[in-house]
Design a protein that fits this description.
The chain is mainly beta and 958 residues long. The protein is 8% helix and 53% strand. The protein has 8 helices and 48 strands. Strand 20 and strand 21 form a beta hairpin. Helix 7 runs antiparallel to helix 8. The longest helix is centred in the N-terminal third of the chain and has 23 residues. The protein is globular. The two termini are 56 Å apart.
Length: 958
């Protein structure tokens, strides 16, 4: 059993108190709530604000919607209970987050990853800079968002996509807001982990200013405007120990102490050959960071008349962060293994090895710019017919520049003195350091122990084989869209008939280029640079919270100093050519149309309502990729050799097309009008592959020679699978919702999904022209599996204000939600999993078990407990998510699992008067680490800390 620190025990106590504080009073309140009347009471007519108003409004939205929806909504600006949109979403039933740099980023719905969700901004597709279809919610300040809806079931008029659901982020419409308001807020941010960084401040800040107003224009109608701006300047320190992203199954019967381990084949593993799983490298990393985001939102609502209205909105966000990384690398984790201990799953418990050791200094900068804009024209052509025309544009550009210099160990130190490597039992030319790697019982961080004669803090030992590397990547994701909708109101069973169409084009382009050189100047020059660029280890208490960690500091250097001294410039710039087989150029064109009918009737004396319809979606993908060009050399011995032509590439275009029909039906049975509702939904849904997973580039690995062109090629690696089809599912939801009063809700939903297949690596022949010859060569890609799989789950929500308690305890309230799901969906590891032969249909059994759906967590819990009295309110928010598989962006990578994690956030505010309020917020109070495994559960890949953050601020309203 894992050891528990005092902080862990305190976290468990807080968690249990919070869950009990929410669940028990809600359950105990059942009889009292059952006696409440649905009609408004005098208390209901009192103005409700703050947390209670947000939850009440969210309940109202859920009750009104036809589909199965959960929401977070407020009429006020800046009242969403979170620092970012991502953190706000994770308070909604069934939603949980994947946190990066201490903040909520990608969202999973019902335990299903972001790949299976669709996100829209004011009903329109939104871009991101990650290369997938999720949205980086850290780009959007929660202060400038007013409502978030999660559609758990689909309906025909929603933008296609979203097997798990659709997240729609909505901003304020100024005329509907109905009053003038100027609002500003300033918050100071304190990060205890940043306080451990030597010579830096632990403080940051964020400021928000917004203005809303309405004007009468006489004969031109009424116009409303809203504008909001924010600057966010914080620090996000991180510390981690992590293995590489490539893992090998080593043959345990063929250990070689002075070489890399031998990789076991699928056939050998199937025959019973023992193996253990090891990464290519292991890195201890300390990160210091500065993070700044500027955001602006603007909206214009122009009501020309009662029949014509124009809405314009735009959002812009510019985020930049700079990281300084200090790495200690064991770069040869596959080498020199002896005394390996491993379990029945191939998970290493202990091994002895030898590796070159590196001190690597990195300066990383990332700039990400988001721009979204839309225009919506609504015209009530007649009393029955409404036409809506909507145009939208969304663009994200992310650029990263990483400058890195590596210094390695050598048999001499930088002063020319032989170090311990010359001492027995080491050969005089050995540059590798012996070490012991082990994962001790109860510890989640690996323990690495170097030979005691090697001092990792001695700068003199890191100087050889200097490598200066400059990587630059740029990702641009752009979406244009236009849609036209017509609603015709009718009499009778069908109340409204809606038809519409959407045309959209999404482009994704990226490049990732490297400018790299190694340097071996005179030892005197290496000595000068070593002395000049040395730095003090930048942090105190490195990974001191990680039980098992044995490395607290090492010799570090200034990356820009090293880059300048070795290359002559702090920034050597781009290489001469940006062309690379790793580049992607993907265009996706979508043409969709739908017809949907809304209906209303009675079944006996029971009111029923809902909608039914079908959406037809045609998707065309065009992917352009590069492949190296070769000269074909005929050797005297009859063999041939392929010689790459420098900076010469051939362009290849791969196209694919799909058409999918998405029928849907939603029904609401009012078992007790406005109080007890039974909802049923059946629909077909789709989730498209990530744009970055559709690349057509191919990288060739060559043999020395062969008798044919095919023989001269050892392997072709794909940077994507353009022919990958959308993941399709048939879905059914059944939900029972009970609304005792405006502040209370009990809802339970049972849902089922059947997928048309999973994902599996497969080998397929692709045609190439090499040296003037047409050849067919096998390429490993990811394809849609022919297998069918299922998922089922249950989702429960309890919300209540404890008004049945005596004053002042009636100020308490809470919400708790739980989602459980189970699935047999399979994702295979690209290197070690099953492989499909598409010609024969046979599957070669893999070495390791498959993963499930990306982002799938079996258990998701969210709990909120609040207290509100007059102008004071306090709220605790707890979230738990069980372990899940998280794929790498761009796919074609190995399996990675994130272990179960929990977070606890706290928010408090006090209204000094009607214009001024004070606020206190804290995130990740449990200081929960992020632990990942690879390529099987239990095999530690990364132990990652980023710490809590605290905010104190003030807000004014005029």
């Amino acid at each position: 059993m894992a050891k528990r620190t005092r902080a862990a025990r305190s976290a468990e106590m807080i968690r249990n108190l919070l869950l009990a504080g929410v669940a028990l009073p809600v359950i105990a309140a059942g009889p009292a709530l059952a006696q409440d009347e649905a009609a408004p009471t005098q208390e209901d007519e009192i103005l409700v604000t703050g947390i209670r108003e947000t939850l009440r409004t969210s309940i109202d939205v859920k009750k009104r919607e036809t589909a199965i929806v959960d929401a977070l909504s407020t009429d006020e600006i800046g009242d969403l209970p979170a620092l970012s949109v991502g953190e706000a979403i994770q308070t909604i039933t069934g939603a949980t987050t994947h946190r990066e740099k201490g903040g909520a980023s990608e969202i999973a719905l019902r335990g299903l990853g972001p790949f299976l969700s669709n996100t829209t901004f004011n009903g329109r597709d939104a871009t991101n800079g990650s290369g997938d279809r999720s949205v980086n919610f850290n780009q959007f300040p929660s202060e400038l968002v007013n409502n978030i809806k999660i559609y758990k079931s689909q309906q025909a008029d929603l933008v296609e996509g979203g097997v798990a659901g659709t997240i729609d982020i909505g901003t304020l419409r100024p005329l509907d807001y109905g009053r003038m308001r100027v609002q500003g807020e300033i918050k100071a941010n304190y990060s205890p982990y940043q306080d451990k960084i030597i010579g830096s401040s632990a403080w940051g800040w964020r400021g928000t200013l917004s203005y809303v107003d309405q004007f009468k224009l006489g004969g031109l109608g009424d116009i409303g405007i809203a504008i909001g701006v924010q600057r966010n300047s914080v620090s996000n320190p991180e510390e981690t120990v992590a293995a590489s992203t490539t893992w090998t199954a080593c043959n345990a019967t063929a250990l070689v102490s002075n070489n890399n381990c031998s990789e076991v084949t699928r056939e050998q593993a199937a025959a019973g050959t023992p193996f253990y799983l090891t990464p290519n490298a292991l890195t201890f990393r300390q990160i210091s960071e500065v993070d700044q985001r500027d955001a602006i939102f603007g909206a214009v609502q122009w009501r020309f008349s009662d029949r014509v209205e124009l809405n314009l909105d735009a959002q812009y966000s510019d985020r930049e962060f700079i990281e300084n990384r200090r790495d200690l690398n064991i770069s040869e984790m596959r080498r020199g293994h002896t005394a390996v201990e491993y379990d029945e799953n191939g998970i290493i418990q202990r091994l002895e090895g030898s590796s070159a050791v590196e001190s690597t200094a990195t300066h990383l900068s990332r700039a990400e710019e988001y721009l979204g804009a839309g225009a919506n024209l609504r015209w009530d052509a007649t009393d029955r017919l409404t036409l809506k025309l909507d145009g939208s544009y969304s663009r994200t550009i992310r650029k990263e520049v990483e400058r890195q210099v590596r210094l390695r160990t050598d048999q001499f130190d930088v002063n020319g003195t032989r170090n311990f490597f010359s001492t027995a039992p080491f050969a005089s030319n050995n540059i590798r350091v012996p070490y012991v790697y082990e994962v001790l019982p109860g510890n989640y961080a690996p323990t690495v122990t170097f030979d005691p004669r090697f001092d990792v803090t001695n700068h003199d030992l890191f100087w050889d084989d200097a490598r200066a590397r400059r990587d630059e990547s740029r990702r641009q994701n752009e979406i244009w869209g236009v849609r036209l909708d017509a609603d015709y109101r009718m009499d009778g069973f069908i109340t409204t008939l809606a038809v519409g169409g959407r045309l959209a084009e999404q482009t994704y382009r990226d490049y990732d280029v490297r400018n790299e050189n190694t340097y071996n100047p005179s030892m005197a020059e290496d000595q000068r640079i070593n002395q000049l660029c040395r730095t003090q280890f930048p942090q105190t208490g490195f990974l001191d919270a990680a039980e098992g960690n044995s490395i607290s500091s090492w010799a570090t250097f200034d990356p820009l100093c090293l880059m300048r001294e070795y290359t002559g410039s702090e920034d050597p710039g781009l290489p001469a050519s940006l062309l690379s087989p790793a580049n992607r150029d993907v265009t996706e064109r979508t043409l969709a149309g739908y017809v949907m009918a809304e209906y209303e009737s009675e079944l006996g004396n029971m009111p029923i309502r809902g909608n039914f319809g079908v959406r037809v979606v045609n998707t065309k993908v065009e992917s352009i990729g590069l492949r190296s060009a070769f000269d074909l050399i005929n050797n005297p011995d009859g063999t041939i050799t392929l010689d790459p032509i420098d900076d010469s590439f051939e362009s290849v275009t791969i196209k694919s097309e799909t058409t999918r029909f998405l029928p849907s039906i939603n029904a609401i049975f009012e078992l007790e009008p406005n109080r007890l509702l039974l909802r049923a939904a059946a629909y077909r849904a789709m989730s498209r592959p990530a744009p970055s997973g559709l690349g057509a580039g191919r990288t060739f690995s060559l043999d020395t020679s062969g008798t044919t062109v095919e023989d001269a090629i050892s392997e072709i690696r794909a940077n994507g699978s353009p022919r990958l089809k959308p993941l399709m599912s048939w879905n059914g939801d059944l939900s029972l919702e009970y609304y005792p009063d405006r502040d209370s809700l009990f809802a339970a939903t049972l849902y089922f999904k059947e997928f048309s297949g999973g994902f599996i690596p497969f080998v397929t022949n692709e045609e190439f022209v090499i040296g003037g010859q047409d050849v067919s060569v096998p390429v490993i890609q990811t394809a849609n599996s022919p297998d069918k799989s299922q998922l089922w789950g249950v989702e429960i929500t309890l919300t209540n204000r404890f008004s049945w308690l005596p004053a002042p305890l009636d100020g308490f309230g809470g919400k708790i939600s739980y989602n459980y799901a189970d699935t047999n969906f399979k994702n295979e590891d690209l290197r070690l999993g099953d492989v499909l032969d598409p010609l024969t249909g046979t599957v070669s059994e893999g070495i390791i078990p498959p993963a499930g759906l990306s982002g799938f967590s079996a258990h998701v819990v969210s709990a909120q407990l609040y207290y509100q009295l007059d102008g004071f309110s306090i709220q605790g928010i707890y979230n738990y998510r069980s372990n899940y598989y998280q794929d790498f962006v761009g796919s074609n990578a190995q399996l990675r699992y994130v272990r179960g994690n929990e977070t606890f956030d706290l928010r408090a505010s006090y209204n000094v008067n009607r214009n001024i309020s004070l606020r206190l917020e804290a995130t990740n109070i449990f200081d929960s680490p992020k632990i990942t495994d690879m390529p099987v559960k239990g095999s530690i890949r990364q132990y990652h800390y980023y710490g809590p953050r605290y905010f104190i601020g003030a807000r004014f309203r005029l």
